[in-house]
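Below is how a single chain appears once it has passed through the pipeline. First comes the sequence as given, then the structure the pipeline wrote out for it. We keep one example in the README because the format questions we get most often are answered faster by looking than by reading.
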Amino acid sequence: MRFMLDAMQSGDVFSKDISRNAKSTALVRERLAEKEKPKTPTAEVSFEMFRSGKSIGAIAKERGLVQGTIESHLTKYVANGSIPITELVEEQKVKKIMEVLKSDAVGLGEVKSKLPKNYSFGEIRLVVAHHGKS
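Resulting structure:
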């Protein structure tokens, strides 16, 4: 009698193991299927959010990224003309950065050192991208 109870209990354990393995296998398949779905490039996501009227700061906060990353994402869209530079950098700053770029300054660090403290590396990169397209 005891043998039969043990066999029945072990059968229940065995059934639970099968059920757990089946759920685990289904979860693995689901995650693999998600990975196979084409993902929108992260720069494109930032671009679309910007186009919808969100600021760089708002995009960064919503996506859990730093502002510099969003600026980097948008740089390619400035370079290809999809975003006018003045939508991201004040016209006065663009002119000043362009002046320094046309001087003998080499590298972003040197350009930044010749500008007022309130100019960011992101703004400089955006203007460099804009300058490269013109």
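The mean pLDDT is 83.

See the next section for the split statistics.
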